[in-house]
Design a protein that fits this description.
By secondary structure, the chain is of the alpha/beta class. It has helices at about 15, 30-45, 60-70, 115-130, 140-150; strands at about 5-10, 55, 75, 135-140, 170-175, 180-185. The chain has one domain: Phosphoglycerate mutase-like (Rossmann fold). Strand 5 and strand 6 (about 180-185) form a beta hairpin. Helix 2 packs across helix 3 and helix 4 (about 115-130) packs across helix 5 (about 140-150). The longest helix is centred in the middle third of the chain and has 18 residues, at about 115-130. The protein is globular.
């Protein structure tokens, strides 16, 4: 059976607005972030997509986003959390090293890039293997979405070099134990 998973980044938060490093630490959605989630939710309505099952990172910003996109009951999953940046959490983004981060955060109590990628990939694989429904929404985080894309880059030609914006949606097909990125849905938030 072919399943579809819509992997989505949360809406804008106060820390996003303040350019603070936000991994396992959390901050609430801004009014703009809430409106981004509502607009992203309209994508599903306008395209007659019925979300049958939903999952979220345990972070408040992801749960709040999901609740604005759909009123469906959902499961909170720790494995969908953002990269753990260790002591850099809640510090200013100018302290980030140049990309790729690799294992930069490990000596500071954070996760290595491959360790993080594997965590997110295994979590999403387990969700979709066990899921009986065909259309699934998963709300997570920017780096988590990007690392999942990298895990399955070999199965698809779809890519986006720029940063994945708030409430960006990655549409994946899950079939024969493999994910394939079909489309990247970016919304027009210029009016916000």
């Amino acid at each position: 059976m072919t399943k579809t998973v819509y992997l989505m980044r949360h809406g804008e938060t106060f820390f996003n607005q303040q350019k603070k490093i936000q991994g396992w630490c959390d901050s609430p959605l801004t009014d703009k972030g809430k409106n981004q989630a509502i607009i992203a939710g309209q994508y599903f309505t306008e395209n007659n997509i019925s979300i049958e099952s939903a999952y979220s990172s345990t972070s408040e910003r992801a749960c709040d986003t999901l609740e604005l996109v759909t009123n469906k009951d959902y499961k909170r999953i720790k494995g969908l959390k953002e990269w753990n940046f260790g002591v850099f959490e809640a510090e200013h983004e100018y302290l980030n090293p140049p990309l790729p981060y690799g294992d930069f955060f490990v000596p500071y109590g954070g996760e290595g890039e491959l360790q993080f990628r594997e965590r997110v990939a295994k979590t999403l694989y387990k969700i979709m293997e066990e899921e009986e429904k065909q259309t699934v929404l998963v709300v997570s985080h920017g780096a988590a979405c990007r690392q999942f894309m990298r895990s399955w880059a070999h199965t698809s030609k779809v890519d986006q070099k720029e940063r994945l914006g708030n409430c960006c949606i990655l549409k994946f097909e899950f079939k024969d134990e493999a994910f394939k990125l079909l489309e990247i849905i970016n919304h027009d938030f210029s009016g916000l």
